[in-house]
User: Which sequence fits this backbone?
């Protein structure tokens, strides 16, 4: 009997083995302000995250689906209209053709989208070792990691939908020394969470790299560390991926309340109607 | 739609005038008001109404999405993001539509397994059942083409894998493939025609659903005992009894639907589909939507390409032959002690196949898929025909009313509630 149990256990490990074969660790699950049924974005956090994107990520990664005006929309970083106008004006946007048929550059307007760092994908690839850095607009929804059984079932009940953000934060903080004996090819970098552990992107963030706004006592609003930068920029990218997340969860609560009350009323109506049928059969 | 003669009497002068020219009011009256339903049908019988609701919901949300969607290889992805970001409540309509497809399949699987459990496919409901299998096939085609439309990575590669499968069909395979592609690979013409067909098929589903309801209303509904209606005491008028129960069940189903739409809108999709389609980059795992996974597992379980395709189509087509494969005269599994066990083994086998469909086709997964696939066919082709001859069914109640009153008195019989496993003590 014991032997048989062991055999079954061995078979199950055999089944599970391919899941670990990829070699990357499962990202730690963080607490996000936007998780759960009442989640909202932390304005200060996604404003800081935007600063990280702008000062670090934007030198290689585009943010094609985001217009400057989005930064002032409700449910986002909620910069003021004036701030957005001033910010847009700092960018040079190519426009045209004008009446003479020429393309020209003008200062950005809130309706403009963020200009991409490279004119096209080939230029981006050529400047980055052969592979274009992906657009970040949807990154928080375009990446995930495997949860496996039984977690993927439990996730439905606890509303775990932050696989993407957890993965992004893990990759941004996952640049460690390669374990002894692990060969990292030239142009590659070891990352504990990236599938296959070799990532083309060099470690993008380091402590103290981005200056955060100061509070009254002159201390930064949040620690200027790789971990905090990663959290903030990930939260910002969750907003760029799902700009109506707050409206969605708010409407969801109203819809749920309505449907639960409606179902309750319908239940009693049904009971009353069927009482007549039961009398007839009794 | 009903053989039962209508008791509808037009009251106003206009109604009389109209009725003598187009008797649609009496048709509706006889089909959805006076139509007799067995008084013991449980909540599994509300999924027909839930499915009708989902079909209408999918068509409505789809029509609105089509107002903003652009079926072009270089614009489709962007137009979906435009809907998500800039169209008022576009995110809601799109999430309703995308998750609605999954909810449609959740409901249809419950509906199908209810039919399997209570023997709803047996005479005189064979045509009703086969029409159902046709609807299911149309649903799968619609869902597959719909998933291609956002033109993300999984859209593109899913379309590539499935259209390549069709090429394995002898003689006509290549022609079918190039007709679907509109060229030499999946590309802009493919997207165009998939959009066109995706918009067409739901209306064909509506047509077959009308036939399905018609074919239902001729013999009338089956019920948890499988014993037909014998006297008027066994039945209740559709309205108000079934109507209110269906509306209540639909409202509860909507709570389930809303949970996904508002809180887990991307859980049932793939992260890869938020990456624009790129013919030069293959995703690490090409996995279909969850509702296709058991069939995908069957396809990959067979080492031969054509064999896999045949097995996959056969696994669906075999359902159409159920009325003749099941040799037992007893409809309801509640009175079939042996079949009941095999029913649950089949349910577990399908879930296992679904899980395997999501796994890479390597190592143990392949062997387990092959065993599970073999069992799937053994169930339908061997177990089901043989059981009818060797099984000793439990005694059936004399009438529906008898079963209902027996269960009311706390004795044996079938509880009329939403009980997943009906009492089988006899």
Assistant:
């Amino acid at each position: 009997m014991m032997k048989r149990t062991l055999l079954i256990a061995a078979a199950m490990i055999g089944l599970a083995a391919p899941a670990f074969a990829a070699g990357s660790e499962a990202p730690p699950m963080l607490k996000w302000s936007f998780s759960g049924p009442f989640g909202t974005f932390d304005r200060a956090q996604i404003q800081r995250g935007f600063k990280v994107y702008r000062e670090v990520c934007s030198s290689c990664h585009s943010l094609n689906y985001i217009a400057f005006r989005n930064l002032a929309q409700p449910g986002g970083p909620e910069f003021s209209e004036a701030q957005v106008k001033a910010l847009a004006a700092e960018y040079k946007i190519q426009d045209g053709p004008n009446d003479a048929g020429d393309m020209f550059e003008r200062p950005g307007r809130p309706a403009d989208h963020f200009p991409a760092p490279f004119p096209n994908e080939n230029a981006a690839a050529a400047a980055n070792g052969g592979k274009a850095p992906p657009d970040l607009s949807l990154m928080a929804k375009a990446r995930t990691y495997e949860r496996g059984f039984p977690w993927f079932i439990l996730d439905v009940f606890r509303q775990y939908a932050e696989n993407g953000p957890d993965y992004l934060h893990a990759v941004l903080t996952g640049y460690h020394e390669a374990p002894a004996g692990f060969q990292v090819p030239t142009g590659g970098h070891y990352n504990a969470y990236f599938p296959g552990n070799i990532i083309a992107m060099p470690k993008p963030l380091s402590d103290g790299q981005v200056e955060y706004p100061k509070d009254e006592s002159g201390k930064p609003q949040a620690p200027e560390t790789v971990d905090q930068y990663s959290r903030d920029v990930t939260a910002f990218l969750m907003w760029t991926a799902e700009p109506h997340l707050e409206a969605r969860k708010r409407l969801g609560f109203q819809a749920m309340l309505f449907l639960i009350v409606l179902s309750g009323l319908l239940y009693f109506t049904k009971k009353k109607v069927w009482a007549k049928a039961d009398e007839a059969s009794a | 739609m009903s053989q039962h003669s209508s008791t509808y009497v037009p009251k106003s002068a206009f109604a009389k005038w109209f009725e003598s020219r187009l008797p649609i009011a009496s048709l509706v009256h006889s089909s959805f008001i006076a139509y007799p339903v067995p008084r013991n049908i449980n909540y599994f019988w509300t999924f027909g109404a839930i499915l009708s609701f989902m079909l209408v919901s999918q068509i409505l949300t789809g029509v609105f999405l089509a107002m903003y969607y652009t079926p072009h290889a270089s614009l489709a992805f962007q137009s979906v993001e435009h809907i998500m970001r800039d169209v008022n409540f576009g995110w809601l309509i799109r999430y309703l539509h995308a998750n609605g497809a999954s909810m449609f399949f959740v409901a249809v699987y419950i509906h199908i397994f209810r039919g399997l459990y209570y023997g709803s496919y047996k005479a005189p409901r064979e045509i009703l059942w086969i029409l159902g299998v046709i609807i299911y096939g149309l649903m799968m085609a619609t869902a597959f083409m719909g998933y291609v439309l956002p033109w993300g990575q999984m859209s593109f590669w899913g379309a590539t894998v499935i259209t390549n499968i069709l090429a394995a069909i002898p003689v006509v395979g290549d022609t079918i493939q190039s007709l679907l592609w509109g060229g030499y690979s999946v590309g802009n013409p493919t997207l165009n025609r998939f959009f066109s067909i995706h918009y067409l098929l739901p209306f064909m589903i509506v047509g077959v659903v009308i036939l399905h309801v018609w074919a239902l209303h001729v013999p009338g509904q089956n019920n948890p005992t499988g014993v037909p209606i014998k006297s008027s005491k066994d039945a209740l008028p559709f309205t108000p009894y079934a109507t209110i129960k269906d509306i209540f069940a639909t409202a509860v189903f909507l709570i389930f639907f809303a949970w996904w739409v508002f809180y887990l809108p991307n859980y049932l999709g793939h992260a890869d589909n938020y990456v624009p389609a790129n013919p030069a980059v293959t995703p690490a795992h090409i996995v279909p939507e969850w509702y296709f996974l058991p069939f995908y597992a069957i396809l990959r379980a067979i080492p031969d390409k054509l064999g896999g395709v045949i097995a996959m189509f056969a696994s669906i087509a075999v359902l159409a032959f159920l009325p003749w494969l099941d040799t037992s005269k007893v409809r309801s599994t509640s009175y079939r002690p042996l079949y009941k066990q095999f029913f649950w083994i089949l349910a577990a086998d399908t879930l296992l196949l679904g899980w395997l469909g999501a796994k890479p086709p390597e190592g143990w997964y392949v062997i387990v898929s092959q065993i599970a696939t073999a069992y799937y066919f053994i169930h339908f082709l061997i177990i089901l025909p043989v059981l009818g001859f060797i099984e000793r069914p439990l005694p059936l109640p004399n009438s529906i009313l008898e079963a209902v009153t027996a269960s009311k008195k706390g004795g044996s019989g079938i509880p009329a509630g939403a009980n997943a496993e009906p009492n089988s003590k006899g």
Chain B has three domains: 1-34, 44-222+234-286, 288-398.
